[in-house]
Amino acid sequence: MSTAAVEKQGFGATLWDYLTTVDHKKIGILYLLGGGFFFLLGGLEAMLIRLQLMLPDNELIGAQFYNEIMTMHGTTMIFLAAMPLIFAFMNAIVPLQIGARDVAFPFVNALGFWLFLFGGLLLNLSWFMGGAPDGGWTAYAPFSIWSPTHGFDFYAIGLQITGFGTLMGGINFIVTIVNMRAPGMTYMRMPLFTWTALIASVLILFAFPALTVGLFLMTFDRLFGANFFVPEMGGNEIIWEHLFWIFGHPEVYILVLPAFGIFSEVITTFSKKRLFGYSAMVFATVLIAFFGFMVWAHHMFTVGMGPIANSIFAIATMAIAVPTGIKIFNWLFTMWGGNIRLTTPMLWAAGFIPTFTIGGMTGVMVAVAAADLQYHDTYFVVAHFHYVIVGGVVFGLIAATHYWWPTMFGKILNEKLGKWTFWLFFIGFHLTFFIQHFLGLMGMPRRYWKFLPGQELEVGNFISTIGALLMAVGTIILLYNIVKTTVSGEKSDPDPWDGRTLEWSLPNPTPHYNFKQLPLVRGLDPLWVEKTQGNGKMIPAEPVNDIHMPNNSFLPFMMSLGLFIAGLGFIFRTDSTMGYVGIVAGLVIFFGSMIIRSVKDDLGYHIHKEDLEEEGAGAE
Ligand code: HEM
Ligand SMILES: [Cu+2]
User: Fold this and answer.
1) Within its chain, how far is the Cα of 546 from the centroid?
2) Ligand 2 centre and the CA of 46: distance in Å?
3) Residue range 187-211: average pLDDT?
4) 137 CA distance to ligand 1 centroid (A)?
5) 579, 537 in Cβ contact below 8 A?
6) Residue 95: which residues within 8 A CB-CB, separation 6 or more?
7) Residues 134, 147 contacting (CB under 8 angstroms)
């Protein structure tokens, strides 16, 4: 199969190609579509929350529906939007940045995507099958165990399926980055995005098993009558909080470290300078990841752990501000004296720095254990974590969308529309969330359906909703930009930003084997090294030779579908015997596909040297 054959396909063939693909670039696009869809859904939910809280004593939506929307907004944004969108760029970019032809396990990579998608769909089916989870994205026991609808069954099983996918993806990236770097790409020459992808993957490896265990215990409590988290039966509901946050706190870094990586790439490219303090940046990343695991109980200052435990967790939390501060200064020093171009990605990077710094400072405030008794479960905390996850992660994702669009789709997003998106979203963001700090200090509790008139909360909430509407307009402009570019945009230069790293050395569109000849890496920012000290092109590290490629496969889709059906069966087992049919059918599909995968030889195929020589694209 040559690239030319892939391009001229009808709709059916393209669809089949994507359903069976094991190519990291296409899986990246699938993650972008899936994560993008859930981002819009989570955004819609956020708009409903804000519209309900626009006016005092509002009756726009009912209390139960509010609880479901609020829970699903958080759950969707974290697990089904931010995580997969990070994976979208890790998939699309990391193999290119390290000079590899794919990830280490392409089949597992596809499986990870379909598990995420089917888990997310399962979770959202709850809307149509008796009600979504309604106890907050943290699913605190015993409420989540007692909640009478099937909502938390969907939560436990949907997130379990999605989580399997994430864990597989993480392991895949660790192996890929450790094993598959091009000749000369030493660890200390890896681009920062690859570094942060590696560290985030290590965090996934250690954090997600805690979630897996927690969700299993919850599943047993809810579906099979166990009592792990039910105090009057001898269980302990605090154990859920520990398991959840041992996963949940590192999760923040799993999301934000790759965003830091994105900003490092964007800032170096558009300042035309190498990253200031590269090795300090790497070290700070590792340090943040390490501390990320030591601080989970700062979410639990008010549960009664006692002053000693509270103090230890408070101090460990504050320590994270040090490596984070190092990073902020290194970004500023990279820009200092640089030849700055204020493109759309660079605007997001510039906007990120003060925004994230505010989030970091309020983080130190809530880390003061005694003061947290005031902040806890108020809008101060809502403001704090949105400054971190929107100001860090979402800003990073939108920057990455504009920055890497040419690599992924061969076209460049419209800069004028990009700037409109930025200013509307940026101003809207600060209007929405800055004022929430003060609402929180004035006592407005988090997760409440209504506030009453006459408590001086009206103005703040009204402004906050206006800000959210501005963000929505910004997002719609981004969508319009994407559609417009896809329909009528012109093919872009393969290296439109004058890039420094390997992904910009590839032709447009990137051939499905990526590099005809693996490139020789001669320093940090390898393409820049060749631009300034060589002849502008990568030097090949090997002669043209046959390339071994994996075959497409429909089995990842089928395995995920099997788990999805079995999951539905487990949820409805107590209501109807159809549940048992679902369990059996789903498990047969799942294990049947696994058996096919195990017994059928799948040796892939070769692209022959002669064909490669004809095509002409390559690293020479
Ligand atoms: C960009 C527009 C967004 C708006 C207007 C928005 C608004 C809100 C609001 C009003 C709440 C409810 C607070 C409460 O009643 O306690 C909330 C909760 C939450 N949001 Fe957002 N949000 C946005 C984006 C995001 C993003 C991008 C993420 C994560 C990637 C996120 C994660 C969360 C989480 C985890 C919760 C907590 C839910 C819970 O308490 O169970 N939000 N958001
Ligand atoms: Cu935390």
Assistant:
1) 35
2) 22
3) 98
4) 10
5) no
6) 24, 101, 102, 103, 176, 180, 514
7) yes
Contact 540, 618 (CB under 8 A): yes
The owner of tokens 């392409």 is 106
CA distance 351 to 345: 10
Is the Cβ atom of 522 under 6 angstroms away from ligand 1? no
Q: Is 496 helix (H, G, I), strand (E, B) or coil?
A: coil
Give per-residue pLDDT as tens, 205-249. Answer: 999 999 999 999 999 999 999 999 999 899 999 999 999 999 999
Q: What is the rounded CA–CA span in Å between residue 223 and residue 236?
A: 18
Residues comprising the chain, all counted: 620
Residue 248 CA to residue 62 CA, distance in Å, equals 29
Q: What is the pLDDT of residues 391-434, one digit of tens each?
A: 999 999 999 999 999 999 999 999 999 999 999 999 999 999 99
Per the structure block, which two tokens stand in for 262? 């994105």
- For ligand 1, say whether the CB of 431 is within 6 Å of any of its atoms: no
3-class DSSP state for residue 548?
strand
Question: At 159, which amino acid appears?
Answer: L
Which residue's C-alpha comes closest to atom 33 of ligand 1? 74
- For residues 56 and 450, is the Cβ–Cβ distance under 8 A? yes
Burial (0-12, 13-18, 19+ Cβ within 10 Å), 280: middle
**Residue of the nearest CA to atom 27 in ligand 1?**
390
Cα angle 332-354-274, degrees, rounded to a multiple of 5: 20
Any atom of ligand 1 within 6 Å of the Cβ of 209 = no
Contact assessment for residue 123 and residue 159, using Cβ atoms and an 8 Å cutoff: yes
Distance CA 530, CA 519 (A): 11
Burial of 424 (0-12, 13-18, 19+ CB in 10 A): buried
- Please confirm whether the linkage preceding 509 is cis (ω < 30° from 0): yes
Pairwise CA distance, residues 43 & 530, whole Å? 43
Mutation test of ligand 1: which of 382, 393, 427, 436 has the most ligand atoms closer than 8 Å to its C-beta?
A: 382
From the CA of 388, which ligand is nearest?
1
List the beta bridge partners of residue 491: 411
Which residue is listed with tokens 């998608």? 117
State the distance from the centre of ligand 2 to the C-alpha of 292, rounded, in angstroms: 8
pLDDT averaged over the chain? Answer: 96
Q: Give the Cα separation of 232 and 242 in Å (integer).
A: 19
Alpha carbon 93 to chain centroid, angstroms: 14
